[in-house]
Give the backbone structure.
Amino acid sequence: MKQSKRIFITLIITILFGMTAWAIEKTYQEPRVEYSADQYMETEDVTMKAKVFHAQGKERREQDMEGMKQIMITRSDKKLVWMLMPEQKMYMEMKMNQGTEDPSDIRDYKIEQEVMGEEVVNGVNTTKSKVIMTDRKGNKFGGFMWNTKDGIMVKMDTVSKAEGKKMRMKTELKNLKIEKQDPKLFEVPSGYSKMPGMGGGFNMEEMMKGGE
């Protein structure tokens, strides 16, 4: 696989993880506290580690992609995602509901939830739940989530099935620290330029073609 293709796939998976976690938070309640943690993400194709920072309606992920630092800022309060490229001092802006449907609108999903019990994950007390979400087209997303009493999703192990294709995603938080976060973490730094042609969002298919 070419290096550019690997970068694009890793970028897409990072976006998917961010969107998935955001949609799940709509099913529960958004965390009621601010925190930081090391986040480990895994699919059948890649394993990634990131540093995550969370505040009300805001999240930041920092990770290395092929030796380059990549920062993803999710602003659910603005329905926007910013992908920062520090080395180039540039960023992409993407709309969270770019496409035919808004993934945050859980009214389009049939949601089945079952509490399984209490578990300690990486030293943190959590409640384990089984959740299955089905949209109007019959696409399914489901698995297990481990949440704290403050609504922090410490662990997730899920499988999505859309158009006959399955994808497994796992994520886990370690070194969780509940503390106030600097508001500057969730803004585009001064001196950054927006990548041309990205103002209206992104097209997943075109991004995949671009990585070939």
Notes: The longest strand covers residues 165-178. The CA atoms of residues 3 and 66 lie 8 Å apart. The mean pLDDT is 77.
